[in-house]
Amino acid sequence: MPILTLLNSWSVYLICGVIIAFVAVVCVVFMVRAYRAGLAMGMDKTLMKRTITSSATFSLLPSVSILLGVIALSGSLGTPWPWLRLSVIGALHYETQVAQGAAEQVGMTTLSAAEMTPSAFATIALLMSICIMWGMILSALFNKRYLKKIGGRKAGGGGFGDMAMTAMFIGLVSAYIGSYIGELVSGKGLFTFGGSWQPLVVVAVSGAVMAGFVQLAKNKKFAWVENFSIAASMIVGMAAAVIVGLFAR
Amino acid sequence: MDEQKSKGYFENYNNRTHVIGRIVSIMVLVMLVGAPFVIGGVIGAMPDLAAVGKGFLSVGLVWTVSSVVEFLIYTPMLGAGGSYLAFITGNLINMKIPCAVNARDIVGAKTGTPENEIISTLSIATSSLVTILVLALGVVLLVPLQPILQSPALQPAFENVVPALFGAMAYRYYRKNMKIATAPLVAMSVLFILVPSLTGSTSFMIIPSGAIAIGIAYFFYKKRAKAGKNT
């Protein structure tokens, strides 16, 4: 039987589907508990509903790009395994790199169905699981102690803790935007300006659209746009990438 | 609910979150490590443990370091419930962290407060469910969707999801914190221009970039506190 037929069999779908369903139930349990706790502590119902709406719209587009990761890996690993990996624990940038590295370790020249064997698949799948499980292990072992230690220092929010978290996020965004600038200027050789300028155009367009939304949301009549501002800015930014792509051809 | 009762309720809620979080993390861990063996049983081959060991040393160690860093940085941002869920469901940098930060910003919750804990958990749980749903639908509709999603004209859009996300988030955060943002942005740009090979390790460069931003934020925090004392 061809390897992809084996990897796309109903039994493999069932194994992966059960794990994904379990994680979905866990998410629902955490969500319901948090919502009820919020209500019991007197939190505004509208704010919690806004959180759910904005998080749902926010996650739609990145989820579609994650689906592309599933499609990309399904050609060599079958559909159920990448579906499981990218629904649970996996990260888009991680899965393809580790799958490729793991394939080389089992003697394949490249990650492809042509070279895949049942044993190679089982080995690659286990390696993919082991390489990325540490965040979950650390979380299970040290989450409580770590949060208690940090919480003791900044008791009740406010203080520097909140500012530090904002600064850390600014650092994260700056590292990525800096990498796009570096790629444009030196991506094809130091100071040659031959690298891709697409990501920077997308950053600029997406940021400009966001600026428009921020201005619009200042008017109380349009405060609701805040819930969709990130998703809408992303759509326009990504559309700009398509247009740039057409001109670049 | 008075303040004392509310505090007691939240402590109880938080303790139970840790218990549930630990149990489900271990259960998911067992399932994920066990799945290759169970699937192996179905397809008629077991993993080669020697190759797994060798593979871990060559490709896994770098991700182990990355996981430690992610745990240390993101756990305080997400709170207890949010971080258990985020480490179970993955896709932290490209989705869960910005999603929770955005929700926190919209609601105005402060880090370390009960509100932040609730908002962060709601946000990560919703985000995870949306991803699970989109991927499940995508897998069901894989045959008709594949040509559309993989059409060459749309590829630039999907290759630029992260720049689109960070462009919008950058405007939101930079405009209120230009003094903090300028130095890490300039430093990172210069570094990536001079050492272009670092673009392959951007997720690690978050550490020095974040450290610069936190250092500057601390300077302004102290300066403001000093000015407050003097007035």
Instruction: Please give the alpha-carbon distance between the first and last residues of chain A.
Output: 42 Å
The largest sheet of chain B, given as strand count, sense and whether it forms a barrel, is: none
Query: What is the subunit organization of this protein?
Result: heterodimer
Total strands of chain A: the figure is 0
Categorize the overall geometry of chain A.
globular
Name the average pLDDT of chain A. Answer: 89
Features:
heterodimer; A: 249 residues; mainly alpha; 10 helices; 78% helix; globular; B: 231 residues; 9 helices
How would you summarize what this structure contains?
In chain A, 78% of the residues lie in helices and 0% in strands. With 249 residues, chain A is an all-alpha fold.
Report on the structure:
The complex is a heterodimer of chains A (249) and B (231). Chain A is mainly α and 249 residues long. Chain A has 10 helices and no strands. In chain A, helix 2 (10-40) runs parallel beside helix 4 (80-87). The longest helix of chain A is centred in the first third of the chain and has 33 residues, at 45-77. The mean pLDDT of chain A is 89. Chain B contains 9 helices and no strands. Chain B is globular, with a radius of gyration of 22 Å. At the A-B interface, helix 2, helix 3, helix 4, helix 5 and helix 6 of A face helix 1, helix 2, helix 3, helix 4 and helix 5 of B.
